[in-house]
Every structure is written in C-alpha cells, then in structure tokens.
Amino acid sequence: MAVDQQLKIEMGKQGVFVTTLQELYNWGRRNSVWPMNFGLACCAIEMIATTMARYDIARFGAEVFRPSPRQADMMIISGTVTKKMAPQVVRLYNQMAEPKYVIAMGACAISGGPFKQGYNVLKGIDRYIPVDVHIPGCPPRPEALLQAFITLQKKIDAEALTGQERPRFLDPDAPGEFPVPEPAEHDLEPTANQDVWHAPVVIR
Prior knowledge:
Elements: H1 5-13, H2 21-30, H3 43-51, E1 74-78, H4 86-95, E2 101-105, H5 107-111, E3 133-135, H6 142-157, E4 182-183, E5 188-189
Parallel strand pairs: 1-2, 2-3
Antiparallel strand pairs: 4-5
C-alpha cells in the first residue's frame, strides 16, 4: 500500500519514518552501484575524469570501480566496440553479478560513431546486451556521465519487485546469460542477439 508523500514528510518531522520493502530494497541498490573498471577508447578518459575530485562520482554511490566483473554490477561501455572486442564485452557482462546495468557512453558505443562505416566496428553494443542508459556525444563530458548515472538511479528506484513490471533479473523466464558472438568468415556470428535487438523497420 502506497503512503501519501506529504504524510510521509509530516511524519518524518515527528521522527517517524515510513517506507515499504520495495523502497528500502531499491534505495540500497541505488546507492551502492559498483562500476567495472573497464574502458575501451577515448571515452574512457572522460569516465576516469568523472571519478576524480572535481566531479567525484563517489558522491552518488558509485564509490568503488571493481577490477573483476564478479564484483561489479554496472558496466560503462566507454568507447569504440570493435568486432574483435565485442565477444569479450559480452563475456564480461555475463560474468557480472545480478542485478546488473549497462551505460553506453558516447556515439561509438551507441551506433559506431564516426567509424560506423568501418568493417571492423560494431554498430552499437545494444545488438548483444541490454543497455539501460545511452549517452550521446563524441566524447561526452563527465557531467553527461553523472547525468546518465542519476538517470539510472531513478530507473532503479522505479523498479517493482513483483508483477509484470518487474525487472529482468527477477523474471525466472528471462535469460541469465547472453550468447557470446564468435568471429566468422565475414562478420560476427550471430550478427545480433535477436532477444535484445531488432532491426528497425525503414519505411521508404
């Protein structure tokens, strides 16, 4: 049962704090996101700058960048994803702890960026793993990454523990791992994960 927000504020002034299990659960997850210490190209420099004293992403709960995917629950795809690197990105994502989240940082991670027509560049990491927040730009500034992280926190806050709107990690029928693409003669095989990405319909 939802409690009126104004009533919660008034009760809080009297020293009585009311919440729900869902709010408490999401509050704990929202404020303890551990990003993976992982960068791909020039956007990684901006990601590193976000952790420094001037921007200090630790203020928002992303205190520790973990060196192992088994200790992290957020992956920031910061830079160009080549077809040689794509299988390693998916493999690292599969090894991360649930619930896990992905931020695609920069035009290259979203769509291939200025290298979109290159034969060796993946046209968006969302072809293989689900992306929660996209950050446009080439490269995006640290403030953009902070904004994306705050957007992700809002998304975590709104997640339901039960019902049809529950997130993927609480759905027993949802896949726990995603297929790792393998290099083939002309392209990666499969060329995309059809459970995650569907080719847009172009109307001419």
